[in-house]
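[agent] plan:
  1. take the single chain provided in the ticket
  2. run structure prediction with default settings
  3. attach structure tokens to the ticket
  4. add a short note for the reviewer (M.T.)
[agent] executing step 1
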Amino acid sequence: MFIIPLFAPEGSYDFNIAIANKGHSLEHLFGTDLVGRDLFFMLWEGMKLSLFLALIESAIIIVVGTLVGLAWGYFRWLDRIMIEVYNLITNIPSLLIYMLLASVIKEAFPLLPPEARLIVSLTITGWIGTAYSIRNLTWLTRDREYNVASSTLGTPPMRIMVKNLLPYLLPVVIQSASMTIPGMISSEVSMSFFGVGLPTDTISIGILLDQGRTYFMQYPWQLLAPAGILATVILGFYLIGLALSD
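[agent] step 2 finished; step 3 output follows
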């Protein structure tokens, strides 16, 4: 299988060997792109990057959202402040917030790696949904007898939250994590598709979708292959989340 790397110096490869825009075959399972690069290899590399970023982003969102949600639900005086923050963030489409933050961070920190900019823009407000869910569950369990008894005996609030409340909420946290990962993959792909995510010289699912969209009528496999892989991965994580929920 002949594969031209993404950063190929001009004149360093014989483009007559690599067949550009070739359909699927035993040699190229998903065909080739405009310069003869194997789409199967590029999709594999792009999905690895997307999953790696999604796992980091989901871990940050779950940890921050769980800690904030526990404090939000345990200390009732925080509700007046946090509910306004929640309403402010959730009333604006998430993708619009992510794209705006990515543009601002890119201008403010031009030396920051694009992957780091993407992680910051997706996590700086992405934790609010998880925090709200944990807050609601914390409210339901905060005033149960064993928690009231622990508080009466002088147990510190942090110990009550970690020892009494968090184990009860752990299944919900795990389920939320499994559902957050596909959401982060979709957001990263959408931002790269609209040009505010990863740079165009990066192998990512979003970049491949954007390139395939341009020549969809002539070479439909260049769009259908990344779209099919993306849909399969996202559906798999959603099914895992539903299984954990049951």
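[agent] step 4 note for reviewer: The longest helix spans residues 157-193.
[agent] ticket updated
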